[in-house]
Design goal:
The protein folds into 3 domains: about 5-55, no CATH class; about 80-190, Nucleotidyltransferase, domain 5 (2-Layer Sandwich), CATH 3.30.420; about 200-415, no CATH class. With about 425 residues, the protein is α/β, with parallel strands linked by helices. Strand 2 (about 100-110) and strand 3 form a beta hairpin. It is built from 18 helices and 5 strands.
Length: about 425
């Protein structure tokens, strides 16, 4: 018998506590998040009396059939009715389910009568052909079904997707095919995906050792409670840093690099001591490489630069994750980002006189001197401290120029 039924009931206070305990026990038994508790209680309160509930029967098969054959058609019909009277945009994306079947999700976005933005799933169709033609053919079938349901296709005013070649290529893509068949539709690239691609390409201009450091540190602690306890009890306590866990660097989420870099920088001194100790017990090449990276102050400067520059991209990216329509801010925000990156590596007299979209990042005549390339105030402060200690060292000059040139290469790639 489920644990949620193992409660006795006496007084009114106890009956109320029993209801709450049963709901919480249900969440625990079904491995559901506690955040559902508020909505679950509202659902229970909206239920009819016990007489009707005692007559209800619901198993897995019946629930599946109700969802597929009753609820899905009902809400799909309501969605089509909304599209008949409202302008809407279409957003598509590919996905692969657990059975490795490729599917195309077609979503619509529109403003309802109350001027609230609604985003709903219009269709989820299997699409074994991931080419531009295959994706477009499936989209046409969906829109033909929408037209047959009485929705005027002239209400379709916008199209958006990620920025892959199949979706947004300039020669043959879903974008070009949509513009050819539905010329009144405005095509817009996904700003969030575009921003992630900018970060992805620009980060290739930086040293791979920074990414390797984030991955190695996270993987080292992820599956070992022994390592975690030793690090927390000895090194984090000794250096008096927050006892935070390390974040994994997601290969498809380039902007997560900033959060990983920030956490590594927060724990840098503790990590340095930890790996100095670890190398004594396990002098492997991998551990020695991490130790050398952590003991190299110029690696720390570069990590500060990563934190700063990806912070600029993350701030830009966050704007377009708002639930409010912010399309009117896009041009201004793109110009601001281009202007910031250009000012960090090029002469202000040039940047201020050129349209941000016309800036030529390869115009070396208008480059700032290497020593003036901006790398963020934290990296700059650390570099100034290193210059004070190594004022006569030729190694400082070489490393300082390397860092600033890497930063310039990042800016050039990002602006391009």
């Amino acid at each position: 018998m489920p644990l949620s039924l193992h409660f006795s009931v006496d007084s009114k206070i106890e009956r109320v506590a029993t209801v709450e305990a049963k709901l919480v026990t249900f969440l625990v038994e079904q491995d559901l998040p506690y955040s559902l508790s508020e909505y679950l209680l509202k659902l229970v309160k909206s239920m009819p009396g016990p007489d009707l509930l005692s007559q209800a029967t619901l198993g897995r098969t019946k629930a599946t059939n109700i969802a597929r054959q009753a609820l899905a058609p009902h809400f799909h019909e309501k969605l089509l009715e909304s599209l008949k009277t409202n302008l809407f945009s279409v957003v598509i994306d590919e996905t692969t389910d657990s059975s490795v079947a490729k599917q195309l999700a077609v979503c619509v976005s529109f403003c309802d009568e109350a001027m609230n933005v609604q985003v709903d799933l219009l269709a989820l169709v299997e699409c074994s052909d991931g080419s531009a033609s295959g994706l477009f053919n499936q989209l046409v079938k969906v829109m033909d079904d929408v037209k047959k349901a009485g929705v005027p296709l002239q209400n379709w005013v916008g199209f958006c997707s990620d920025t892959t070649n199949a979706m947004m290529g300039i020669n043959h893509s879903v974008k070009t095919l949509v513009e050819g068949k539905y010329p009144w539709v405005t095509v817009v690239k996904c700003s969030c995906h575009l921003c992630a691609l900018v970060a992805s390409h620009a980060c290739k201009k930086l040293s791979k050792s920074l990414e390797d450091l984030c991955r190695t540190v996270c993987n080292h602690f992820r599956y070992s409670t022994k390592y975690q306890d030793a690090y927390r009890k000895e090194f984090q306590v000794f250096t008096q840093v927050e006892q935070h866990r390390f974040l994994a660097l997601a290969p498809t989420r380039w902007l997560s690099f900033q959060n990983c870099a920030r956490r590594i920088l927060e724990q840098w001194d503790a990590l340095t001591l930890y790996w100095d100790s670890l190398v004594l017990d396990d002098p492997s090449n991998a551990n020695d490489h991490v130790r050398m990276t952590l003991n190299n102050p110029y690696s720390r400067v570069m990590m500060f630069f990563v934190e700063y520059v990806l912070g600029e991209l993350n701030e830009f990216n966050t704007i377009y994750q708002s639930e409010k329509p912010l399309f009117h801010l896009m041009k201004t925000q793109v110009e601001k980002l281009l202007w910031t990156f250009a000012m960090n590596s090029m002469k202000p007299s040039y940047v201020r006189t050129v349209n941000p979209f016309d800036i030529n990042p390869h115009d070396e005549v208008n480059y700032l001197p290497d020593e003036n390339v901006y790398i963020g105030y934290k990296g700059y402060d650390l570099l100034v401290g290193l210059e004070t200690r190594e004022v006569t060292s030729g190694y400082f000059v070489v490393e300082s120029l390397r860092i600033r040139r890497s930063a310039r290469d990042f800016y050039v790639e990002a602006v391009q």
